[in-house]
Design goal:
Helix content is about 35%, strand content about 20%. The protein is an alpha/beta fold. The chain has 2 domains: about 170 residues, HUPs (Rossmann fold), CATH 3.40.50.620; about 90 residues, Pantoate--beta-alanine Ligase, Chain: A,domain 2. The strands form 2 sheets. It has a 6-stranded parallel sheet with strand order 1-4-3-2-5-6, with helices on both faces. Strands 7-8-9 form a 3-stranded antiparallel sheet, with helices on one face. α6 crosses α7 and α9 runs antiparallel to α10. It is globular. It binds pantoate. Pantoate binds next to β2 and α6.
Length: about 290
Amino acid sequence: MKIIRSPGAMTAWSEGLRRERVRIGLVPTMGALHEGHRALIRAARLRCDALVVSIFVNPTQFGPREDLTKYPRSISRDRALCKREGVDVCFEPSVQAMYPKGFQTTVNLPAIARRWEGEVRSHHFSGVATVVSKLFGMVRPQIALFGQKDFQQSVLVHQLVKDLNLGVTVIVRSTVRERDGLAMSSRNVYLTPDDRIRAVTLYRSLRAGAEAIRNGVSDGKSVQAMMRQVIKAEPALTIDYLAVCNPYTLEPLSTVTPRVVLLGAVRLGPVRLIDNLLVTVPRQRS
Ligand code: PAF
């Protein structure tokens, strides 16, 4: 497995392979790899000839009061995981290489990025859209894989690729969960043992919403109220948002449609958890 740090060397490697019609896959990550990343890497491995995993903790997607400096970093473990999974290149650019002196262009965000996470974390999606565009430009992949855990991010990346004609096929893989249902996330290491037990409440709340929809509740506000009730039973949690949305536009739904995404974000002490569930309404009711 190669470790490439310079964007120029990364592009030269990819261009050489593309000339030979080798299909390149990219799994963009911020490191601290877990089972969710492993699933993405395995899915990517099956779909491409040469696989790049980028490991870059992108400063522009963190707000001033967020966890950039203490974001978990485990580069040796990450490289070992990548090697075991047959990754061809770990692309590990430095902050200086990604944002050199004089860097000034960023991506202007579509409407889907202004809601939900965008409201709570105003810089976040601009940083994500910019770094993903840069990674695509440097790695030149034909396919890129993202996790459903960051549902809004995946919708944004689809829109970005479409609007800017980036020529990358975006594949989204379902969330990998712990045994009790908590969505895997690099930030779960911040949870204290007690909070780790409480954290699964978010997933339970989404499940309650999904069950209500499957049992015939079609009013968006009623579904939202049921999800809220589950969270409220755990006083340590504070709700940022719980929403019943159209999965393509992320607009809130007053009446559920055949396909719905339930989005949730809560705070548990200093830790912020996000999760989502896609729900398909049984055909006879749609
Ligand atoms: O999902 C992530 O880990 C990050 O947002 C990404 C896509 C690697 C961009 O920094």
